[in-house]
Amino acid sequence: MINIFEVAETNKMIEKENLDVRTITLGISLLDCIDGDLSRTNERVYEKITALAERLVSTGEYIEAEFGIPIVNKRISVTPVSLIGGASCKSPDDFVTLAKTLDRAGRAVGVNFIGGYSALVSKGMTKADEALIRSIPQALAETEIVCSSVNLASTKTGMNMDAVRLMGEVIKETAEHTKDRDSLGCAKLVVFCNAPDDNPFMAGAFHGVTEADAVINVGVSGPGVVKTALTKVRGESFEVLCETIKKTAFKVTRVGQLVAKEASRLLEVPFGIVDLSLAPTPAVGDSVADILREIGLEHAGAPGTTAALALLNDQVKKGGVMASSYVGGLSGAFIPVSEDQGMIDAVTAGALTLEKLEAMTCVCSVGLDMIAIPGDTKATTISGIIADEMAIGMINQKTTAVRLIPVVGKNVGEKVEFGGLLGYAPVMPVNPFSCDAFMERGGRIPAPIHSFKN
Amino acid sequence: MKKSIITVVGKDTVGIIAKVCTYLAEQDINILDISQTIVQDYFNMMMIVDMSGTKKPFQEVIGDLNAIGEQIGVVIKCQLEDIFNQMHRI
Is the Cβ of B30 closer than 8 Å to some Cβ of chain A? Predict the structure, then answer.
């Protein structure tokens, strides 16, 4: 039987070390909402989302009470909207109406975010894909909780460089459209290589076409728990360090599994996956960078950071995989800058650069995330940064992503406030040399060879 | 039968167990096990209870226990046992 010390340990994790379930995300397929008539499509989308997600928030709150564990966000992900609007949307403006419908439906059921204003263009763009991409700046400026993502590359198809170039411009335009709010629109827009179909985390969540009609995916958190566990093994060998991370990740993930199963039972929606993630928040003590410091680095970004992060990421997976019956999504440590106090400190101290962050993304979940850059950064430069990150994902058969915020009117060293879970960030310098001629070429980078690995 | 765990943490004072137990008896909640210890000068008590006899919804019981905790200056939590079993048992 459970003893008092085990109960106290769990409750200490929740109360003092920020253990929480980051999100319950309800994936909803909108494929059956497609209609040749735009207003009919909008109606069907609204009806389907509000019907399926009606009890999502109240159920989430009920589970919070049952287990005494905070569930920070309740979210919805939908089928990539470029597919849903393909039959009825003739222009970017038409797509914006769908974004507004998503926003309205999401707010009606009380969720924090709704993701899936997306296009999958890793090999080519349909007219609908391009119209959706061109509508993103306006869609994100005129909605509150809609998140957008675009898959630009994959290991199987290579990189769509036309789309990469276009996204550089779209990101700049999105920043311009929301310049009165520190270019906040860009915080809701992410580009991917190898985007997963079942990711519960925003801004990149969408409900892939390989998924069932509705599904529950859960993202766990818990950097604070790992950090606290590691303070007890200071100075010990890597073996002890790795065992400690594994055991802690196991415990954290079990909570996610439990919540996912319970949500699935109560909502009568199948359980999809648990995303094994260390997702930081701006709260003190809820930082992945602090774990890196605890492992033995003065700051995130110091020599040794990539190795420490690789170790951390791998042990989180090893511990987490056994704790959950189905694992998916992004699964790994996140290293967003603005959402992690330790990362912000590292940037402010001059320890962490964009280039080092890029290296770190080779060994951990996702990529260049929530990084504020000067507002006058050229679109081609942003596309170049995206291309580099996509190449890492394509060659290494992993998911990579870019969420950059070129903050209009701000320069290196200035602070940008996004608020809430999105946090704040110092504007980071970008390499000033040009890649214009590279980006102007157009076309695709072919898929990589799958043998001769070196 | 769904078991729940009630924990009481706070400064030791007269009548903590009495107050909590009285409330549980009133609500037909059966206590299966009690253990207590002092950790860093703080009173820690854990009860394993069976709530299948009570008519009150789970969330109301949590609310009532929170209120009793506030009255006597301790923190009382009530959670389904599953979260602890999941975390600490393979």
Answer: no
The residues, any chain, with a CB within 8 Å of residue A144's CB and separated by 6 or more, are A103, A107
Tell me what percent of the residues of chain A surpass a pLDDT of 90: 90
Structure tokens at A159: 């990189």
Shared domain check, A230 and A185: no
Q: Which residue of B has its CA nearest to A257?
A: B86
What is d(CA A44, CA A190) in angstroms, rounded to the nearest whole number?
A: 27
pLDDT in tens, B33-84: 999 888 777 889 999 999 999 999 999 999 999 999 999 999 999 999 999 9
User: pLDDT band at residue A2, thresholds of 50, 70 and 90?
Assistant: confident
Do residues A105 and A54 lie in contact, with contact meaning Cβ atoms separated by under 8 Å? no
From A10, A65, A257, residue closest to B84, measured CB to CB: A10
Query: Are residues A175 and A268 located together in one domain of the fold?
Result: no
Examine the domain organization and report whether A138 and A287 are in the same domain: no
Return all residues near B51 (Cβ < 8 A) that are at least 6 apart: B2, B3, B4, B29, B58, B61
Could you tell me the two tokens for A9?
């340990």
Q: CA angle at residue A388 from A340 to A350, to 5 degrees?
A: 40
Name the one residue in this structure whose structure tokens are 């296009």: A119
Using CA atoms, how far apart are residues A125 and A127, in angstroms rounded to an integer?
A: 6
pTM above 0.90, yes or no: yes
Question: Over the stretch A337-387, which tens digit does the pLDDT of each residue have?
Answer: 999 999 999 999 999 999 999 999 999 978 999 999 999 999 999 999 999
Spatial CB neighbours of B57, under 8 Å, sequence gap ≥ 6: none
Which of A360, A384, A353 has the alpha carbon at shortest distance from A292? A360
CA–centroid distance for A181 within its chain: 21
d(CA A214, CA B38): 48
Q: Which domain range does residue A376 map to?
A: 218-445
Of the candidates A334, A365, A199, the one whose C-alpha atom is nearest the C-alpha of residue A273 is A199
CATH number at residue A158: 3.20.70.20
Chain B, 33-52: which have a CB under 8 Å from a chain A CB? 33, 35-37, 39, 44-46, 48
Query: B60 touching A, CB under 8 A?
Result: no
Residue A260 within a domain: yes
Structure confidence by residue, pLDDT tens digits, A92-131: 999 999 999 999 999 999 999 999 999 999 999 999 999 9
Decide which of 1.10.3720.10, 3.20.20.70, 3.30.70.260, 3.40.50.10050 is the CATH code for B3-88: 3.30.70.260
Note whether A59 and A110 are within 8 A (CB): no
State residue A82 phi and psi, 5-degree precision. Answer: -60, -30
What 3-state DSSP class applies to A224? helix
Q: Which residue has the higher pLDDT, B1 or A50?
A: A50
Do A70 and A149 share a domain, yes or no? yes
pLDDT of residue B1: 65
Has residue A2 been placed in a domain? no
